[in-house]
Amino acid sequence: MNITVPQLLEQVRRYDRLFLLLDYDGTLVPIAPTPERARLSPDMIDTLGALAATESVQLAVISGRSLADLRQRVPVEGLFLVGEHGAEICTPAGQRHWLVDPVAIRPVIDRLATQAEAALAGLTGCLVENKTLSLALHYRLAAPAVAREAVTRFVRLGEAHVRGGRFQWLRGKQVIELRPAGIHKGRAVAFLLEQYSRPGEHPIYLGDDRTDEDAFRVLSDAGITIRVSAEEKSSRAQYRLGSPTEVHQFLDGLRRQYG
Ligand SMILES: [Mg+2]
Prior knowledge:
By secondary structure, the protein is an alpha/beta fold. It has helices at residues 5-12, 42-52, 67-73, 102-119, 144-163, 185-196, 213-218, 244-258; strands at 17-23, 57-62, 80-83, 88-90, 96-98, 127-130, 135-138, 167-172, 175-180, 201-207, 224-228, 239-241. It starts with a helix and ends with a helix.
């Protein structure tokens, strides 16, 4: 359901405490031509910092990006960072959790990354990203036929691992990823709430992509879920906001309401 920022703030007002769970790309920043270019605005950093410092609000940024990448992109203290769709978690106090065994996963991903670089050499506009616990192929800048060929080769490389049951495919916006089986943002959200939610705290999740649907499902009757999208899309989320700009307005509203 479409909702305005003031209506959403009104919905939230009844809760004393919030656990805010925010996707990064397409939610806090507009989708960029390459993952490298998606940077938070200084205003957004300021807003996130203020919310993270608010006693009645806990904040988590949950992304498919690696934890190291996310940490460098979100220069804010006092929040949870969740990388690789939940495979790696870092708490505000700096405690680390892994929802997979990194020692078993990393060598497999490293080997596949080398193979993928070789298999995709010469396919313009395609980018293989080794996130240490998962491997992504980005093809936003490739011509459609090149992108199809790249995806075919990439899938051929990873398919045996998927059939073996340890990994699975994940498709997002102009990206296909091989990631450890059973890891998704829904599981990350369930983990955070189980381990760290405080009494009287209400979860709110904002995300823009297919990978966020797992989180919407986990929160379906336990929180407020918002899909960020310019168009109406079939989604498990209760509400829709139109853009990262509206997300920023909403977060600024929360800052005033809870700060
Ligand atoms: Mg996203």
